[in-house]
UniProtKB/TrEMBL annotation:
Span of domain ABC transporter: 333-567
Broad class of the protein's primary localization: membrane
Name this polypeptide is given: ATP-binding cassette domain-containing protein
Membrane-related topology note: Multi-pass membrane protein
Organism: Paenibacillus hemerocallicola
CDD domains, per database record: ABC_6TM_exporters, CAP_ED
PANTHER family referenced in this protein's UniProt entry, alphabetically: ATP-BINDING CASSETTE SUB-FAMILY B MEMBER 10, MITOCHONDRIAL, ATP-DEPENDENT PERMEASE MDL1, MITOCHONDRIAL
Lineage top rank: taxon: Bacteria
Amino acid sequence: MLWKSIVTMVRSSPLFLFLIVSGAVIDLLFRYLSSLSYKYLIDLALLPRDGKALAVIISALLVLGLTNVLAGISSDYAKARLGSNFLFEYRIRLFRHMQLQSQRFYERFGVGDLLARYTDDIPSIQTAVLYILTGGFLSIASVIVGLAILFSMEWKLTLVTLAGSALLFVPFRMLKSRSLALGEAYYKQLDQFNGSIDENIKAYRVIRAFDLRRSMLDKVEGNLRTMLSIGVQRNFVSSNLNRLPMLAISLLTAVILAYGGYLTFDGSLTIGEFIAYNSIFFTVGTSMFGVTSVLPFFLSARTSLERLQQAMDWKPDVIERDGRELSPVRSDIALRDVNFAYVPDEPVLRHLNLTIPVSGYTSIVGPSGAGKSTVLQLLMRFSDPQSGAVMYDGHDIKEAQYASLLRQVGVVFQDSILFHSSIRDNIRVGNPDATQSEILEAARAAGIHETIVGFREGYDTLVSNYGDSLSGGQRQRIALARALLRNPRILFLDEATSALDPDTERAVNETIRALGRRMSIVSVTHRLANAAMSDRIIVLRQGTVAETGTHEQLLQQDGLYRQMWEKQQGFMLAHGGGSAKVQSDRLRKLPFFRGIDTAALEEISRLFVTEKFEAGTTVVEQGDQGDKFYLIARGKVEVVIAAGTGERRKVASLEDGDHFGEIALMQHIPRTATIVTATPCWLLSLSYDHFHPLVMRYPAIREGLEVTLRSRMQRRDD
Ligand SMILES: Nc1ncnc2c1ncn2[C@@H]1O[C@H](COP(=O)(O)OP(=O)(O)OP(=O)(O)O)[C@@H](O)[C@H]1O
């Protein structure tokens, strides 16, 4: 399939093809005519001492040589152009294909994987195509023409040559599968290496802060050593593929010299014919060698072609149609009986029906994993549901022109990635045609204009490393300005402020709330304090709508929302986010502190210590001795379990108000899971050593803990 498109592409450049082919034909002529010329040079000019014949032969050779050089130059130019066109065309094709893809594609092909396809696979195919097109075809043609001449000169000797030439392909048959296997192994290591470089750039702060430099270095060094060893083996096999055919050619040459010499002794060949025969055979031998030397390129390109094909064959999740334009949405956006799963048989949304009026501020809340972000992704058509429909004003968005949908929406994600260019250009991403005053207006509305003009370079300040040169709040505000510049009818927010520190979050939320008067906002958040002011709240549970209403209505319903609300209450963060506290009433809601008197709870609450963690930090490691219990005052962590095979699997997420590690309050036993922070976290920890004296004084605490732990152990064993 891909070969076909390569052939089509090559054929679409007829001028370059003509120059390459004519260069090859002239080169072929030059090779054989100059070899044949020995016959005439010796037999017609040198032996009869004919000066005129000598002059004619030398002039003809000069003209041919000059023509060959000129044809070679134009052929080289054509090859350079064709080669560059090839690189351009296939890199652009892969890039366009990538742009159509969604999350599944990027999960399957990592950064390193994709980079290697651009920088190694495509050039490797290009080299093979050019080599086959020039050296390969020329060599085959040369072998055919050369053998025909040799046959006409001495057929018996040529039959021996032909039979012996089969030897040339023996190394290829022997080494082919080894070469392919080494090619695959090499690319696997290269993908990993590229991935590590990417990781080291993106996560350099975490690597520095947690002193992971040694382990990262060890990882990359191990990777490079394996690559080096495979590279040596691969080159060795390739050079054997090149060199072993030489052995066959040397053998054949010996046979020709011996048998040809014998034919000269018995007068069947003249000396001129013998020398010309040898000279032509030398050219045929070189050409045969040329055919075999294409083979390593061919094998390497075969692996690369398969890898490129894998990526190009990946079907986009969303098929963009040239449907009609979606008119500006006025009434509502809705999900109708939507079923959606990322993994077959693991439904995330189940027969979900929900309607969001295009006015005011709507929050979508729910426990972790309920499908909140998934709903947002479907509303923006990052994926399509497996069944059901997403409607804007009653029109299925699958039938509409994709660009007309995107024009109506703006979005701010939790981690806003900014591009490596000026702040102005980063905002302009929202609308490339925006004027300077529109950019300034968007920045003002996002509350970032004053900060930007305070920078020495103002709007021309370079944003580097995906926005790392700015604070989290500044980054989110620029992302907000970028979304506002589109003048969207609906602004989607996916946990847009939850990774910010409390003061910044409050300030950015005030800005967003003010925007709610100008446009419709749909915000996914797990922090209910942010949802409380919304005009309406949709509560999701396991992919269905559990409750809807305003904050007050939902509290009265006494359902899931109320439970979540109460879980998140009772924590206080000092201004500036330096320390956190938990109230004794909140502690009473923990199952193992239920029934304990207020004085004891007060005492316990004072024992908690604030620990602040950046995103991506391991708080506890599976297998380590547990000595602390943790409450999440703010933030989100992931619970990861390593199976016997060493494979790590995320089993749950915990967020504001959740707790973990209570077993450590009873005894030092190994942690049963690893906890890694997914956002910056403020955790309150209670150590066994501080807690133990209290357990001694209050037997009710021990009893409560024992009951909880027994039931937890029971659940785990089940
Ligand atoms: N790309 C993916 N591949 C496989 N499963 C996924 C993928 N993205 C999300 N999921 C799973 O789908 C479910 C819903 O995820 P989603 O992110 O929509 O939930 P959420 O309510 O936004 O949760 P959170 O608040 O933790 O972000 C979760 O169980 C999650 O693990």
